[in-house]
Amino acid sequence: QDGDANLTITETDDAIIITYKGVTYTLPKGEAPVTMTLTTAKNVGEKIKLYINAAPADQPDIWIDLNNNDKKDEGEAVTVFDSNVNYTLGARTVTIHGKVTYLRCIENYLTSLDVRHNTALMDLRCYSNQLVLLDVSNNTALTSLDCSGNQLTSLDVSNNTALTKLYCFDNKISGDNMTALVNSLPDRDGK
Predict the structure, then answer these.
(1) Span 87-98, mean pLDDT?
(2) How crowded is residue 133: how many other Cβ atoms within 10 Å of its Cβ?
(3) What pLDDT, in 10s, does the model give residues 136-156?
(4) Could you tell me what percent of the chain has a pLDDT over 70?
(5) CA 157 to CA 134: how far, in whole Å?
(6) Which strands make up the sheet holding 110-114, listed edge to edge?
(7) What pLDDT digit, counting tens, does each position of 95-109 carry?
(8) Cα separation of 181 and 174, whole Å?
(9) Pick from 18, 109, 101, 108: which is nearest to 52 by CA?
(10) Which residue of 40, 62, 67, 167 shows the fewest CB atoms closer than 10 Å?
(11) For residue 191, what is the DSSP state?
(12) pTM value?
């Protein structure tokens, strides 16, 4: 409330600091982190196979939070690109940090995949998993998507105007949801 003595808002060069009733909240300024989060039905200690690529300038910033502690630990830097790599799970949910342009995460028993916070993603291959939802609405650079062999009941690619390849067979998309998917496809005349 305006004029509330219990509320102060201070702005610095890199943050907005809000203090309300003695509790301080710091909101960092700048871009949100670029991440993709995967959750698997595999157990901790098992391996997931990932194929990751990124622009050479972005590769030093790519890392995988394998134990889901939100900090870069030893062994979590991605050092091999453009090749399949097996990673040992320290948690069932892992987060890939950085501007990844290509992600292949096939046959990993994924139950969820959140790619909304990586707008650099151009090619996503997440087929043969257990996904029931896939939101690619923020991935406007996406040119190729293979999400076949999952449990999807709907898919919206209306924001993916750069999309030239889509594979989504062997899912549960039918009826009105299939009509919606077809209607969301980019114009094949390049418009």
Answers:
(1) 97
(2) 14
(3) 999 999 999 999 999 999 999
(4) 94
(5) 10
(6) 63-65, 93-97, 35-40, 110-114
(7) 999 999 999 999 999
(8) 9
(9) 101
(10) 167
(11) -
(12) 0.82
Contacts of 188 (CB under 8 A, 6+ apart): none
What are 81's two structure tokens?
């690109």
**Bridge partner list, 63:** 77, 97
Per-residue pLDDT reduced to its tens digit, 28-71:
777 778 999 999 999 999 999 999 999 999 999 999 999 999 99
How many whole angstroms separate alpha carbon 59 and alpha carbon 162? 23
> 3-state SS string over 61-108?
HCEEECCCCCCCCCCCECCCCCCEEEEECCCCEEEEECCEEEEECCCC
> Listing from the earlier edge strand, what are the strands of the sheet with 23-28?
7-11, 15-20, 23-28
C-alpha 149/C-alpha 172 separation (Å) is: 9
